[in-house]
Amino acid sequence: MIDFSSKPLFLAPLAGFSDLPLRSLAKRFGCDCTVSEMISSNALVYEHDKTLAMLEKSPLETPYIVQLAGSDTDVIARAVEILNEFDGIDGIDLNCGCPVPKVIKQNAGSALLNEPKLLCNIIETIKTKSNKRYTSVKIRLGFNTKMAHLIAQDLANAGADFICVHGRTRAGGYSAPVDYEAIAKIKSNTTIPVIANGDINLDNYQNVLKTTGCDGLMIGRASIGSPWIFKEIKENQSINPDEKRQVIKEHFELMLNTYGNHAIGIFRKHLHEYSKGLNGASEFRSSVNQIHSPEQMREQIEQFFDPCRAIS
Asked: pLDDT tens for residues 90-111?
């Protein structure tokens, strides 16, 4: 289902962003594989009904991968058994990259890079228990030091079908320079496909592929405010301002369908990104922060993103 020979494009799991509406848009614009927001294995097992909504997918989302976080092998096994009950999930990914302190305190996310044996045991558990086609793992270069190349083949031996690599250590957060050469080192030290991740955008994606030698790209923050980036990469041309306006309007309607009137507040952060670099963006952001009705939001979107306004 994932053709790694074609250098597929993945949408990264982004907490608070890569929800059903954004994934639907990304898929429509040529994203090859979507990944759910990070889902706590504990939450899936112990807050079952509340967490199940996060599994919902668009009919467009094939292949679709659900990302789990956790460090308790037994709990993760139970979470996998829950996921086994759902059709339409094509793979399970283990999060070994999240740098957030509350995740680290649970010995999950990138903290697992400090315990390679446990990490491999968890992957083996997922592979053994899962009835899905793919088992994958998303890692960083290491926790404090760049060591992931030393365990890359161990991850494959444990059952990972492919690896996604964010090119920073946990200590590097999201601000340190991405080390694409270090991703290349991981690629050269394993026999399974490797997907490069970290600050990949329309300007550098070709160089990232060349430098890393990777089998695909995972795009995260560059898709926020630009869900059409997948089409732009594949077709090597930008979409026009009127099409952008239509996408933004569609995004808001998808948000309303998913969240009801709560979408108004949630969508503000997307509008902040969509408006970057445009004349009057600051005033527009201040304006939408005061809006509390769908009708007013639609009107503001229609007016601000009018291509004629941008030209005048």
From this structure: 999 999 999 999 999 999 999 9
Q: Which residues are annotated as a binding site?
A: 67, 138, 166, 220-221
pTM tops 0.90, yes or no: yes
Query: 1, 41, 48, 39: which is closest to 19 by C-alpha?
Result: 39
214 is catalytic: no
The span from the CA of 164 to the CA of 93, in Å, is: 9
Q: Which one is the CATH code of 241-311: 1.10.1200, 3.10.450, 2.60.40, 3.15.20?
A: 1.10.1200
Burial class (CB in 10 A: 0-12, 13-18, 19+), 249: middle
Distance CA 191, CA 13 (A): 24
CA distance 309 to 303: 8
Domain 4-235's class?
alpha beta
Q: List residues forming the annotated binding site for FMN.
A: 67, 138, 166, 220-221
Catalytic residue among 31, 33, 96, 98: 98
